[in-house]
Amino acid sequence: MRTRIGAALVTGAAIWVVGSPAQAELQGRDLDGDPSTFEAYYDTVLGITWLADANYAKSSGYDSDGYMQWATAMAWAEGLVYGGFDDWRLPKVEPVGPEWNYNLSNNGTTDHGWGITSPHSEMSYMYYVNLGNKGYCTPDNADPSGCTEQPGWGLQNTGPFANLQDRYWSGTPIEAYAESVWVFFFGSSAYINGQQDGGHPLTDYFAWAVRDGDVDSLVKEFALKTPEVAGCKNVTGTVTISKAAPPEGVVITLSDTLVSASTPATLKILAGSTTKSFAVKTLPVEIEESGTISATLGSATLSQPLTVRPMGMDSMTLTPTTVVGSQPATGKAKLECKAGPGPIAVDLSSNNEAVAYPVAASIVVPQGLQSATFDVATNVVLAKSYATIAGTANGITKSKKLTVKVAAAVSPTSLKFGGATVGTTAGPLNASLTNQGAVPFSVNSISLTGTAASWFAQTNDCPATLAAGASCSVSVTFTPLSAASKSAKLSIATSATATPLGVSLSGTGVLPP
Predict the structure, then answer these.
(1) Using one digit for the tens of pLDDT, what is the confidence trace for 37-60?
(2) How many domains does the chain have?
(3) Which among 293, 309, 325 is the end of a domain?
(4) Would you say the pTM of this structure is higher than 0.70?
């Protein structure tokens, strides 16, 4: 994975061209914001970027001389953060012939020896092709003991690179030799100059950092607000560049790989700005689709994954949210968008069917509509209870809690007589018992309780069975027996409640004047 983690304005220019058109241009790249110098060079054939400082491990202070064992060199490259990039590595070798063969007569396609011009060896390609140097031995030497010296051999050309050393680690072990790693000699004693060979990991060599791809882009970051979205919803994408756009602005090319998503063709960041957002539009889908959204500037492309999924539930509502047991409620299942590309099924459920439940197990929201209603039935409860009604569409669930009350209710819940002369009767004050449910219930008893119950009296017109929607009245009087404040309770027992309903009673006896 290529990762850009910092802010750096980079510009390119072809400054070092060697040989035929099939060979690379090394294009300078600015990584520190100063276009007068280049901190890296892009190889247009190998598609990799080289640090301009070929011994940056020393220059940066990581190592005193940059001369390191292989494990240390690997750790340095993998941990390097430079120019806003954190994906540097050591050069690699991709063996394409016998791993240990001095015979290089096959146009440089074997791995061990001199004159290897194959792009499968990044350092050998740099030495022979990009820089145009010659090895000490001619490419057709079968054995170093019979090496034929070439005129003009050696590191004659260092190109645009600084601090080029004589021998370098690759990041590629030699599979046929458990304790060897590919190395390349840029300049040393005659017989190994320009040679690709094996080195023991505990030997000291130099390290040169490279990374895959070009860094020639103003684009610093490209992000999507979310990596997954319901088809028909928009996703916001944001492109950020590392420096304020010039007067003419910066035009970013946008693209996608999804059938169900579309982006604007281009995005223009206006002069002086560093960021701009755009909308990725999506269409309803029957099955999940995954792909990428990309932003391209010059030769650099940044991509983000996007999954478009079938639409699911957006919300669940209940009307009312509090209901008396046995009375119905109405549910409404709302989708994230208008149903498409066909009708959408919504599965309905309750977490407490003894209290309340959807009458239907599922409903269908027709194509082009966003919601559908359904009936919720409730049962008689003997105490306040709760049930959560849920709807699920394409794996997305939304729910709403329904409160279910008992059918029997008394009002008010307190009767206050205030002061009354001792020996006289105050009142009556009335309380109503109501059946709020859809089925009748029994009135089992109406009584007075408490230590001062004898100070109060009640009469009522309540029948043995109170019909649905009906009410009856209880009248209470207060006769104080002495000058004191007393209280009691009116208790109404019904088949609709687990415990009797209660009305608190209070009054104060006062002496006559």
Answers:
(1) 889 999 988 989 999 999 999 999
(2) 4
(3) 309
(4) no
